[in-house]
Amino acid sequence: MGKGGWNRVIVEKPFGKDLETSNKLAEHLASLFREDQIYRIDHYLGKEMVQNLMIIRFANRIFGPVWNRDNIASVVLTFKEPFGTEGRGGYFDEFGIIRDVMQNMMQMLCLVAMEKPASTSSDDVRDEKVKVLKSVPEIRMENVVVGQYVGNPEGQGEAQKGYLDDPTVPKGSTTPTYAAVVLYIQNERWDGVPFVMRCGKALNERKAEVRLQFKDVPGDIFHSQSKRNELVIRVQPNEAIYTKLMTKKPGMFFNPEETELDLTYGSRYKDVKLPDAYERLILDVFCGSQMHFVRSDELQEAWRIFTPLLHKLESSKVLPVPYVYGSRGPPEADELMKKVGFRYEGTYKWVSPHRL
């Protein structure tokens, strides 16, 4: 420890395996460093579009009045990877997809759901994130689908092998490589709105996004031709913000048609280099800004929400639903989303103009 200047320590996740081990680690760190010296790094908080969530919400008048339970039907947070655990199966099996990824997603959920902070100071922002987490009850098993990928004999080139085919994975492992979880935030703004978090490996594409689906327009005069509006924040790849909305079909028609208002960063900001998440966060450490780092009480609340579920899955050895390498994941996850009110129309797909 230096006698002059400052001392700051960066701690990489996972921060423990459950509430008990996380608290033990937190107590140990607290005996060595002050909270303002500890930087619990979660690289997702360094992503351009994750940091953009606060600006979108609190620097624009148009979103504020509709950002609540009266207008939003559901919020879906998605993290998909098109590859399995190749070579990392032994490490991954110790933690599983919920510990490995959903902590990142909880950070995004907080930024979507929190109230406006008093300022942009680190503690004001983190105070509001903690309030959101305190309003989330423990997850119930009926609101969870877990899956594990199996080999795809029709995969391109060498057949894509299943999770259990990895020699570093224990035989008969029930560790999930996919999870879909529905959370509810019991406060005035969000009561009754399902927040769906879904993440998985060996899926059909690489994607991380936040999708807010709005309720149906009351008093439909277009004979059910209108689809629900959506606001999508695409975190990776092809960073973008777009709003899915209805417009008149061009030409001699008077029918609604889906389209988007599109801000794709690759098109709008052609010559701007977006820094890597770790670059941005390590600079924040040098500058002494903890806004995009996880505070101890924030971490404790996140573990409180997930620990009972993790213990139940592990003690009961709940069998994950098998899904094929390269698929969208278990169909049961789509059924869960449908049950809680998310409507997938399947009639329209946004294509990044940056890829054309």
| SS field, number of helical segments | 8
Quickly give the structural class: alpha/beta
- What's the pLDDT, averaged over the residues? 88
Major beta sheet, specifics? 9 strands, mixed
Order of helices and strands: EHEHEHHEEEEEEEHHHEH
Q: State the distance separating the first and last CA atoms.
A: 52 Å
Based on Cα principal axes, name the global outline: globular
> Could you estimate the helical fraction of the residues in percent?
25-40%
Radius of gyration in whole Å, from Cα?
21 Å
| Strand numbers in spatial order across the main sheet | 10-9-8-7-3-6-5-4-11
Q: β content, as a range?
A: 15-25%
Low-confidence stretches: none
Number of strands: 11
Please describe the topology of this protein:
Layout: E1 9-12, H1 19-32, E2 38-41, H2 48-58, E3 72-80, H3 89-113, H4 122-134, E4 144-150, E5 178-184, E6 194-200, E7 207-214, E8 230-236, E9 240-248, E10 256-264, H5 265-268, H6 277-287, H7 296-315, E11 321-324, H8 331-340
Parallel strand pairs: 1-2, 3-6, 4-11
Antiparallel strand pairs: 3-7, 4-5, 5-6, 7-8, 8-9, 9-10
Helix pairs in contact: 1-7, 3-4, 4-7
Can you walk me through this structure?
The protein is α/β, with parallel strands linked by helices and 356 residues long. The protein has helices spanning 19-32, 48-58, 89-113, 122-134, 265-268, 277-287, 296-315, 331-340, and strands spanning 9-12, 38-41, 72-80, 144-150, 178-184, 194-200, 207-214, 230-236, 240-248, 256-264, 321-324. It has a nine-stranded mixed β-sheet, sandwiched between helices. Strand 8 (230-236) and strand 9 form a beta hairpin. Helix 4 (122-134) runs parallel beside helix 7. The longest helix has 25 residues, at 89-113. It starts with 8 loop residues before the first strand and ends in a 16-residue tail after the last helix.
